[in-house]
Each structure stands twice: as C-alpha cells, then as structure tokens.
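Page 37, continued from 36.
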C-alpha cells in the first residue's frame, strides 16, 4: 500500500506536469498569434507591391527600389512565418510538408494532405 508521502509526491508530480503542459499550450498560442500578425503584415506588403506595379504600368514611374525593399521585407516575413510554424510543429510533435505546408504526425512517412514523402529529420 502506498504511503501518504508517496501519494503526495505523485500528486505533486501530476500538478507539475499539468503546469508544464499549460505553459506549452500558452507558448503555442503565442506563436500562433505571432504567425497571424506576421501574415497580416505580409498581406499589407504584398498589397503595396501590387500598387507599385500598377503605378509603374499606369504612370511609367520608376519603382525599382521600393519594389526591391518590398520584396526583401516579404521574404523576411515569410522566413519568420516558416520558422514559427516549424516551432509550433516541434512543440506539437508534428512535421510540416515542404511541398504543401500540411501538418502530419512526426512519425508519418507521407504527408496526410498531399501524399508527398516527408523529410526524415
């Protein structure tokens, strides 16, 4: 029969594990919020790039430098979004397909969304 100390120790371990799980979930939620913010900014950058191209075609203005700046910012945002998505997958014990972006269990060999073979990392 378990002693009171063993019972209290097990209860403490369970509470600590639940606390860690809660902290993990909060961390995942924060990363997902940051992904949404980055995607919103990316949308604005892409819209601005479209306006620049339209203005160039319509007015013949030189927009080369603003286009380069916008493209560079879009690439930075995409890289940050990919980094955050990879961190979310790592926290959830999943992997992202490099072909379609779909999420599958870490031990999957093929993507559940598109069927592509997943990287064995």
């Amino acid at each position: 029969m378990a002693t009171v100390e063993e019972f209290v120790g097990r209860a403490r371990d369970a509470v600590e594990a639940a606390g860690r799980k809660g902290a993990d979930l909060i961390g995942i939620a924060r990363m997902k919020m940051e992904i949404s913010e980055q995607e919103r900014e990316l949308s604005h950058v892409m819209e601005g790039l479209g306006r620049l191209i339209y203005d160039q075609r319509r007015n013949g203005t030189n927009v080369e430098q603003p286009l380069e700046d916008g493209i560079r910012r879009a690439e930075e945002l995409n890289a940050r979004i990919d980094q955050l998505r990879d961190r979310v997958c790592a926290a959830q014990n999943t992997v992202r397909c490099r072909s379609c972006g779909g999420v599958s269990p870490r031990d999957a060999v093929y993507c559940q969304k598109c069927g592509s073979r997943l990287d064995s990392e």
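Residues 4-59 form the longest helix (56 residues). Flag for discussion at group meeting. The mean pLDDT is 88.
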